[in-house]
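Practice problem: predict the structure.
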Amino acid sequence: MDFLEGAWDTPDEGIWEVRGPRRHFTHSKVLAWVAFDRAVQAVERWDLRGPVDRWRQLRAEIHSEVCREAFNVELNSFTQAYGSDELDASTLLIPLVGFLPADDPRVIGTIDAIQRDLTRDGFVERYKPKERNDVDGLPGGEGVFLPCSFWLVDALLMLGRDDEARELFEKLLGVSNDLGLLSEEYDPAAKRLLGNYPQAFTHVGLVNSAYNLSHHIGPAHQRTKRT
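Answer:
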């Protein structure tokens, strides 16, 4: 926490470790908020020691900054980074970690934008690499990213769109191999698994979504609602 107090407001490479210039990635700021939020909860719930007033202040500062700088009014969506017009699937985590409630209009707009502009055959892409190598340095043409598709399942569940969530979940199960294993990516055109295999990141998403779909009170539903 001491490190994060001095580092949360600096640019970084983001969850996808892009090869371009460092930026103020939305996901990074949201996860910094998560760290301060959970630290505050640890003090409040379990009487642990810590500078809770300062952490509350930083938590509020990060929340305000993300809502101000990372939301694109024209797109009606949170974007990949501050001031960006690029969508990023990592913003699906905003309701899952409790940063904002799923029924917040900004979250609904983000989910709808990702479904509309960042999916292929119903599966979710991480983001769309620029044709110029000034953001990522990667060529286009990667597969859809399976962990992100499970995030969409959970986000749809939180919105009460259970039928859509279950349909996507079943579709994801359908691309697993004969052992029930999934990779990092999938090519909907060639209908083959791509990337790191088997990918634990994907299977964590599968387990979380399966748990949430089972009508238990899953982790995504335990998040405190924020305004």
